[in-house]
Design a protein that fits this description.
Elements lengths: L8 H6 L17 E2 L8 E7 L10 E2 L7 E2 L4 E7 L6 E7 L5 E7 L15 E2 L5 E4 L4 E5 L9 E5 L3 H6 L1 H7 E3 L4 E2 L5 E7 L10 E5 L5 E5 H5 L6 E2 L6 E2 L5 E7 L3 E2 L1 E7 L5 E6 L12 E2 L7 E2 L5 E5 L12 E5 L19 E4 L12 E7 L12 E12 L6 E10 L19 E3 L1 E3 L4 E5 L4 E6 L4 E7 L5 E2 L2 E5 L5 E5 L2 E6 L1
Parallel strand pairs: 1-32, 3-36, 31-37
Antiparallel strand pairs: 2-39, 4-5, 5-6, 6-7, 8-9, 9-10, 10-11, 12-14, 13-14, 14-15, 15-16, 17-19, 18-19, 19-21, 20-23, 21-22, 24-25, 25-26, 27-28, 28-29, 29-30, 32-33, 33-34, 34-35, 37-38, 38-39
């Protein structure tokens, strides 16, 4: 069958062509794949992304870094090798999972209560970037080949790192996934736990295509001495013209935060906005380091970022999806759910029933947690960023729901809630524009295609028996193979 794919110009401009290069696919974290995904008929192959899973009862509270996919369909994935730390990166063939190459890294994640991810990046020239110890970054060329040149870069200078490795390794840690722009420049957040020479403090770093590093502190970018680091797991996002980089800062833990815009070349601060609760706007929203919310940039340049509610749990543990213009000077209509999720961009052409005026919609998790004030009817939703409704839970004015769908499997853990269903365990969702659908997985152990033309869940496929777990991304490669992480295992799915 031949697929006719209508791709808006902004999609092509954003997505740097074919590869899945970072968390959320691209530097804007849109989640959009311009290749039709395969029917979800079977598990083609599988491989662990966690060699030593740590359960808390029946829960697996571990986030995992996004798999990446090259233009030639090589899957590059981070793998946790130890109980709470230790990582390596593997490259596997998409057709059968054959190992092409493997590389260890001395990267050590910042403890957050949940296992934090190792977030790698892929450049347009097929260079894999891997976080390392001491705030350094390793690179490996020729991602599709068993052999490739390698190297290591420190944003504060390799000579400085080599002069005092032990101190840098113990005191400087990368704490976000890596984001690579269309030119091959790399951005990431970091935290500093003590004095160094030269003196460093937590913030955002940039390494350009020539290996030259620069950085700016959270205090400077956030214009507040209370901000000491990049918010945990907050992958930087780039504007559509690649001239602005967005990242959140906090003081660690579950503190208040700020979303900042910086010049992507010089890292000079351009603006910042305090992150506030929607229902109680005098309260600072909370920005926990054990979430994975990242800024997402729409085709009009608007910026979306998920935060946690304050006071908790007045919004049933859902948080808010804050919404700003590209300069961060105008606060726009928020979404009713923002906790631990990066929204995906859905072009209006993907939703035939939509009659509103927006050029795109947002897809987000829309859980309503039983036991925290909610009814347990956990959903995913398409939201109109430019239309409003009254939120039935808080009474706040929020983005209008265009389409929602409940999870299909009853949740027996909440017998007092007759409508409770297993929640959606996703933090970044693949949008298949060719098939007008989204690829999403549930804590019931199955993966589904959410068909926007019929608002139904189709092609269900069993991956595991189901387990409570932290949120993970979905990914699709140029050949249409689908990649889902469930119970610490990467599943390659197709026909």
């Amino acid at each position: 069958m031949l697929w006719t794919i209508v791709v808006p110009e902004w999609t092509i401009a954003q997505n740097i062509g074919d590869p899945w290069s970072s968390h959320g696919h691209d530097p804007q974290h849109t989640g959009i794949s311009r290749f039709p995904s395969q029917p979800m008929n079977r598990i083609i192959w599988q491989t662990p992304v966690d060699l030593d899973r740590q359960y808390s009862g029946t829960l697996l509270l571990a986030h995992y870094g996004s798999p990446l996919v090259t233009r030639a369909n090589t899957v590059v994935l981070p793998v946790k090798t130890g109980a709470t730390d230790g990582f390596r990166v593997e490259a596997r063939r998409s057709t059968d999972g054959t190992l092409i190459w493997m590389r260890d890294t001395d990267y050590s994640a910042v403890p957050t209560g949940w296992i934090a991810p190792c977030g790698i990046g892929l450049s347009p020239k097929n260079r894999v970037w891997i976080p390392g110890a001491g705030g350094t970054v390793y690179w490996r060329d020729n991602a599709d080949s068993a052999a490739g040149a390698t190297g290591q870069v420190a944003f504060y200078g390799m000579a400085n790192y080599e002069a005092d490795k032990a101190r840098f390794n113990s005191r400087v840690k990368i704490n976000t996934p890596l984001t690579v722009d269309r030119y091959g420049n790399v951005y990431f957040g970091f935290v500093v736990f003590g004095s160094t020479t030269p003196p460093l403090s937590g913030g955002i770093a940039r390494i350009d295509v020539n290996g030259t590093g620069s950085w700016v502190s959270a205090t400077t970018a956030g214009a507040d001495s209370a901000f000491t680091q990049a918010a945990g797991n907050c992958a930087p996002a780039l504007s559509n013209d690649q001239r602005t980089v967005y990242i959140a800062f906090n003081s660690g833990g579950s503190s208040r935060g700020v979303l900042a815009a910086l010049d992507s070349r010089s890292l000079a601060p351009l603006n910042r906005v305090a992150l506030k609760d929607v229902k109680f706007p005098n309260n600072n929203a909370s920005l926990p380091d054990n979430g994975t919310s990242c800024p997402a940039v729409g085709p009009d340049g608007d910026v979306y970022f998920g935060v946690f509610e304050n006071p908790f749990p007045h919004n049933h543990d859902r948080g808010w999806m804050l919404h700003f213009d590209k300069t961060l000077t105008q606060t726009k209509t928020p979404g009713a759910f923002g906790w631990d999720v990066t929204p995906s961009i859905v072009p209006r052409e993907c939703v035939p029933s939509y009659t509103g005026s927006s050029d795109y919609l947002l897809l987000t998790k829309y859980n309503n947690y039983a036991g925290l004030g909610g009814d347990g009817v956990n959903k995913v939703a398409l939201l109109d960023p430019n239309a409003t409704m009254t939120d039935p839970i808080t009474g706040a004015t929020v983005m209008k729901e265009v389409m929602t769908i409940d999870g299909p499997t009853p949740d027996e853990d909440f017998p007092g809630f007759p409508g409770a269903v297993r929640e959606w365990c996703i933090n970044a969702v693949t949008i298949d524009i060719a098939k007008k659908s989204a690829l999403t997985h549930s804590e019931d152990g199955k993966v589904y295609r959410w068909d926007f033309t019929t608002n139904t869940l189709i092609e269900p496929l069993v991956l595991t028996a189901g387990i409570g777990e932290a949120y993970t991304p979905t990914v699709s490669g140029p050949d249409g193979t689908i990649y889902i992480i469930a119970n610490g295992i990467l599943f390659a799915i197709g026909q």
